[in-house]
Amino acid sequence: MLSTTKKGEVDMPRKPVVDLMTLKDVGAYFGFTKENARLYLHRKKFANAKKIGTVWMIPFSDVKKFEIERIKEGLGGRA
Question: At 74, is the pLDDT very low, low, confident or very high (cuts 50, 70, 90)?
Fold first, then answer.
């Protein structure tokens, strides 16, 4: 149910922010395979990654840090 604010505006529910990515998502983001994303994971490039069941979940903030590192090294960022 929608509620109204004091000014009479409709308060719409917010969409959830996607802040976790799988290895497949990270690979698609950078343009490489999930296997390469797994290699970077095991090289400790994603410090806050967590394994939930059988799936690795990587915070988007870690992905952005990795992207900045790649740009500084001249490897390019997002594909």
Answer: confident
Residue (of 60, 77, 51, 50) closest to 21 by Cα position: 60
Q: How many angstroms separate the CA atoms of 76 and 60, rounded? A: 18
Angle formed by the axes of helices 23-30 and 60-72, nearest 10°? 30
* 31-48: pLDDT as tens digits: 999 999 999 999 999 999
Write the CA distances from 57 to 3, 5, 72, integer angstroms. Answer: 34, 36, 25
Q: Is the Cβ–Cβ distance between 38 and 21 less than 8 Å?
A: no
List own/partner pairs for 35-41 with CB under 8 A and 24 or more apart: 40/66
